[in-house]
């Protein structure tokens, strides 16, 4: 009896796994100035529209790629490194070839809370982290309230 019950469960599970597939009778791609992909024999599709976009649900879904461009970031360059990372006591923010005017740093924890902030006044700025708890932090470098770079810091 136990063997028959296990056999029925095994066969039922296999049928459920095959239920996630579809047999398309025909399909293809067309590309000119745009792109179209189609499948014949598709039974059900649903599209939900909202203020922030749309979602298409079905057997075949489209792929859309978007490039987000911030025009301010094209003119801002910052050559910077931090070391040592991971750290125990302090990190050094090392900058090369950059104007230090109005350059600041902020350290946030993983919850987004501001832990420490300060001014970057020289090319090698030491930031004390001895009193920080063990964890992951993010150091943001800003100039005139515009974010230039973000570093992930691991505190041991």
* Overall strand count: 11
Show unreliable segments.
none
Q: Could you say which structural class the secondary elements and strand pairing correspond to?
A: mainly beta
CATH class of the domain at 71-155: Mainly Beta
Give the percentage of residues in beta strands. Answer: over 45%
Question: What's the pLDDT, averaged over the residues?
Answer: 77
N-to-C series of helices and strands: HEEEEEEEEEEE
Distance between the termini: 58 Å
Structure notes:
The protein has a domain at 71-155: Macroglobulin (MG2) domain (Immunoglobulin-like, Sandwich), CATH 2.60.40. It is 11% helix and 46% strand. The protein has one helix spanning 2-18, and strands at residues 26-31, 35-40, 46-50, 53-57, 79-83, 90-96, 103-109, 114-119, 124-128, 135-143, 146-155. The protein is elongated and about 75 Å long. The model has no long low-confidence stretch (mean pLDDT 77). InterPro entries: Secre_tail (IPR026444). Residues 82-149 form the Secretion system C-terminal sorting domain. Residues 1-26 form the signal peptide.
């Amino acid at each position: 009896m136990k063997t028959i019950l296990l056999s029925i469960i095994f066969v039922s599970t296999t049928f459920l796994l095959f239920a996630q597939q579809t047999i398309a009778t025909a399909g293809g791609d067309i590309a000119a100035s745009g792109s179209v992909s189609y499948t014949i024999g598709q039974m059900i599709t649903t599209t939900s529209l909202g203020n922030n976009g749309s979602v298409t649900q079905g057997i075949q879904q489209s792929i859309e790629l978007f490039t987000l461009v911030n025009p301010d970031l094209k003119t801002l360059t910052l050559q910077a490194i931090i070391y040592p990372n991971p750290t125990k006591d302090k990190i050094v923010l090392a900058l090369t070839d950059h104007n230090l005017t109005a350059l600041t740093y902020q350290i946030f924890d993983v919850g987004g809370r501001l832990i420490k902030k300060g001014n970057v006044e020289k090319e090698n700025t030491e930031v004390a982290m001895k009193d920080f708890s063990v964890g992951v932090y993010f150091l943001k470098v800003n100039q005139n309230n515009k974010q230039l770079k973000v570093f992930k810091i691991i505190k041991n």
